[in-house]
Write a structure and sequence with these properties.
Elements (H helix, E strand, L loop, with lengths): L12 E5 L2 E9 L7 E2 L3 E8 L2 E2 L5 E4 L6 E2 H4 L6 E2 L5 E6 L7 E11 L8 E11 L1
Antiparallel strand pairs: 1-2, 2-9, 3-8, 4-5, 4-10, 6-7, 6-9, 10-11
Length: about 130
């Protein structure tokens, strides 16, 4: 529905913890015109430079504070992702990504009560880690 919103231009960077790069983050906005609880996010799929990121390496947070695995999100009804709010996707990837430009394809699927099947939005952009 809102494919252009799937992948935000800012916030693409490696994440460091205790002096080691443990992965990277990118930002996304919901592909729907209203906020929804995390349990209604059907799936998040990510390709970096043409390679599919394994589902188990992806974590999501609607506010950048508390992160959930994609499987955990199916049970999370107390956190809501609001329209216009940039959610944060963290990918556990030892050493992160090399500096420079990367082609990112992000697919996001959501379920809503009055549509019988999930709908998906996909966007591809070239983003840079500096």
């Amino acid at each position: 529905m809102f494919d252009n919103y799937v992948l935000s231009d800012g916030g693409f960077k490696n994440v460091e913890k205790n002096g080691e790069i443990i992965g990277y983050v990118l930002k996304t906005r919901i592909t729907y015109y209203r906020g929804i609880p995390l349990s209604m996010i059907e799936d998040i799929q990510l390709k970096v430079d043409g390679e599919q990121v394994p589902r188990e390496k992806i974590r999501f947070s609607p506010d950048g504070e508390i992160f959930f695995s994609l499987d955990e999100m199916w049970t999370v009804t107390t956190y809501k992702w609001e329209y216009g709010q940039e959610g944060v996707i963290f990918v556990a990837h030892e050493g992160g990504l090399p500096q420079g430009k990367h082609e990112i394809t992000l697919t996001q699927g959501v379920r809503v009560s009055y549509i019988p099947v999930p709908f998906f939005g996909t966007n591809t952009k070239v983003l840079e880690i500096v």
